[in-house]
Design a protein that fits this description.
alpha+beta; Outer Surface Protein A, domain 3; three-stranded antiparallel sheet; elongated
Length: about 180
């Protein structure tokens, strides 16, 4: 059995879960999320507990078992607490500011890079830090990755956009002739 897949998910108070036509809908204080469930996975909601089971021990079913349970758990976590990714902008002259609903980045290019807010995702800028906040873990991670992609950190000076907890392995520069 999958260690993750066989764990039951307890539904906290204030969260409603419903299952219909192969989709699960989770509603909480922060919003509503829906997810399609693979036809081979069996999801049951009983007495405030969600359990996921699989038909047999085939490799694909074992993988789907843990995945389905994790997706449902992330949905419950999102509608109760939400998710947040923080990015840090490092570099001389590199700036980030919020203009309306857009994030305006000065990253050493000849032009400003403008990142619009996506529905369900809130972007905040404070100093040289960017916060990506939302209830859908996948959307938050994807949005943060797309912002980081605008100027990834380079290993020599450490300039660029990096995650707050990310460690950049630094390289030594060229050595002169002796």
């Amino acid at each position: 059995m999958s260690r993750i897949g066989k764990k039951p998910i307890t539904i906290p108070s204030g969260v409603e879960a419903s299952l219909s036509d192969g989709t699960i809908k989770i509603t909480g204080s922060k919003g509503t999320l829906t997810q399609a469930i693979h036809p081979r996975m069996k999801v049951e909601i009983t007495d405030g507990v969600i359990t996921v089971s699989r038909p047999n021990d085939q490799k694909e079913n074992r993988a789907l078992h843990g995945l389905t349970r994790s997706l449902i758990n992330n949905m419950i976590e999102g509608v109760t607490h939400g998710f947040k990714k923080e990015l840090e902008v490092n570099g001389v002259g590199y700036r980030v500011q919020k203009q309306g609903s857009n994030l305006v980045l000065n990253l050493g290019y000849s032009h400003q890079v403008i990142v619009p807010e996506i529905d369900g995702i809130k972007l905040e800028a404070q100093g040289n830090k960017i916060s990506v906040i939302g209830i859908d873990k996948q959307k938050v991670g994807q949005c943060a990755a797309e912002i980081r992609e605008k100027r990834p950190p380079e290993p020599y000076k450490g300039k660029g956009i990096k995650y707050v907890n990310e460690v950049i392995r630094r390289k030594e520069g060229k050595t002169g002739k002796k």
